[in-house]
Amino acid sequence: MKQGLELKLGQHLAMTPQLQQAIRLLQLSTLDLQQEVQSMLESNPLLDEETGDDGGGPVPETLEPPSEDRQLDLAAEDTLPDELPVDSQWDDVFDLGTSGSGSAADEDLPDFESRNSHSQSLQDYLRWQADMTHFSPDERNMAELIIDAIDERGYLAESLEELAVNMNVQEDALLAVLLRVQDFDPPGVGARDLSECLLLQLKQMVEGGAPVLLAQRIVKDHLQALARHDYPRLCAALGVDEEALRAAMALISALNPKPGEEVGAESTEYVIPDVIVRWTGKRLRVDMN
């Protein structure tokens, strides 16, 4: 007997009970459908009949006309006068002599976009802040002299006595302008020594509490002992324990001794060679990079 495989294709429709019931209900008339639903409700106590409710209230057949006292007499308002009285004139509100393109005072303000469009030096940054500060003409000239005397580290490279002689001004007046320049950004700029530079930065820590006050005492009077790491003598001189000293030292170590380098610092540019030459035995090998 020879065995083999045979493949046949065919179609088969399987009708579920739900489909059969749906087809039967679709063939019923309205009266027969109502009777069918009623019989299902009587035979199955779990079924409940729902009645549709549009939720709308009764609509009155007619609308009552408005009373005579609510009617508006529009006939008397058909015409309007050619000119209406006004309380003010345009000239009282708008100054027609000025244009909307901006005033001359706006042109004198520093240009923020041009300031950030290219890298600037520390002196340019300080001059921009000086332009934003309310200086008198003489004070602005003294501020310019002080800014020119600040080196790249942010320190005042010349003494106030020399600057006062060069500008022929009082040293006290020059000191007053220097104190205002020392409030510029970056913190610590315009200092005359390291101690003053660190003090200027600590004074801006308003909410530092006791550690900031202790750090100011160390920087002002005991900076040399701190540099020698003479911690027992520092604790004895300040009357504090080692924990308080460590908290103050943490603040001091976070300060910048060269604040001027934060502005205008140029990134290092590395030279990338086009070719690389190597010795391979007794020959030179040239590779393109």
Automatic annotation (TrEMBL):
Which domain of life does this protein belong to?
Bacteria
Q: Name one Pfam family in it.
A: Sigma54_CBD
An example GO biological process term is: DNA-templated transcription initiation
Which intervals hold domain RNA polymerase sigma factor 54 core-binding? Answer: 112-289
Q: Which InterPro entries match?
A: RNA_pol_sigma_54, RNA_pol_sigma_54_core-bd, RpoN_core-bd_sf
Question: GO molecular function: any one?
Answer: DNA binding
The segments labelled Disordered in the record are 44-68, 81-116
Q: Biased composition, Acidic residues: where in the chain?
A: 81-94
Which Gene3D superfamilies does this chain map to? RNA polymerase sigma-54 factor, core-binding domain
> PANTHER family under this entry?
RNA POLYMERASE SIGMA-54 FACTOR
Write the protein's name.
RNA polymerase factor sigma-54
Task: Recall the taxonomic lineage recorded for the source organism.
Answer: Bacteria, Pseudomonadati, Pseudomonadota, Acidithiobacillia, Acidithiobacillales
